Amino acid sequence: MATKRSSSSPERSSSVRDRLRWARQDISSVLPSLTFAQVAYVLISPFFFLFGLFLLFPVVYTIYLSFFRYEGVSGDTLFFIDFGPFFIEFPQIAELTFIGFGNYSRMLGDGLFWQSMYNTTYILLIQVPIMIGLALALALALNAGFVRFKGVFRTAVALPVSANIVAYSTIFLILFNETGFINYMLTQVGIEPVEWMRSEFWARKTIISAVTWRWTGYNMIILLAGLQTISTQLYEAAEIDGASRWEKFRYVTLPQLRPVLLFVVVLSTIGTFKLFAEPYVITGGGPTNATITIVQYIYEEAFVGSPNLGYASALTVVFVAIVSVISIIQIKLGGDD
Amino acid sequence: MREQRRKDAVWKFLTYSFIIVMTIGMMVPLYWMIVAATLPQEEFIRFPPRLYPGTEFFANFAVLHEETQFVISIWNSVFIAVVYTALSVILCSMAGFAFAKYEFRFKEPIFYLILATLVLPIQLLVIPLFLMMAQIDWTDTFRAIILPWLANPIGIFLMRQNMKSIPDALLESARMDGATEFQIFYRIALPAMRSSIAALAIILFLFQWDLFLYPLVILEDPGNYTIPVALSGLEESRRINYDQIMVASSLAIIPMAILFLVLQKQFVSGILAGSLKE
Question: Would you give the DSSP letter of residue A149?
Answer without folding.
Answer: -
